[in-house]
């Protein structure tokens, strides 16, 4: 086992593994931030849509109320 640790390939392979791990973590973090940004944007659009629907319902109710009022 000690012969394995003394081989000249341990340090370069270890450095290569660390570089791959750091690159993978950075890519994962970038993807995660993009996903969170997309989720935030979708929630904002959904809230805007709900506000528009409520406004349309209020406008429709006002229109129905205006039609049912007796004309003078």
Number of strands: 0
Give the total of domains: 1
SSE pattern: HH
Overall 3D form: rod-shaped
Which structural class do you get from the secondary structure elements?
Answer: mainly alpha
How many H/I helical runs? 2
Percentage beta strand = under 5%
* Overall residue-averaged pLDDT value: 91
Please summarize the sheet with the most strands: none
Short account of what is shown:
With 72 residues, the protein is mainly alpha-helical. It contains two helices and no strands. The longest helix has 59 residues, at 10-68.
Q: What can you tell me about this protein's structure?
A:
By secondary structure, the protein is an all-alpha fold. The protein has one domain (7-65). It contains 2 helices and no strands. The protein has helices at residues 2-5, 10-68. The model has no long low-confidence stretch (mean pLDDT 91).
SSE layout:
Layout: H1 2-5, H2 10-68
What attributes does this structure have?
72 residues; 88% helix; mainly alpha
């Amino acid at each position: 086992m000690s012969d394995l640790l003394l081989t000249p390939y341990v340090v370069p392979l270890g450095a290569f593994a660390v570089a791959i791990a750091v690159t993978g973590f950075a890519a994962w973090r970038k993807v995660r931030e993009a996903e969170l940004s997309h989720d935030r944007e979708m929630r904002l659009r959904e809230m805007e849509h709900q506000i528009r629907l409520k406004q349309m319902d209020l406008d429709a109710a006002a229109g129905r109320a205006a039609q049912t009022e007796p004309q003078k």
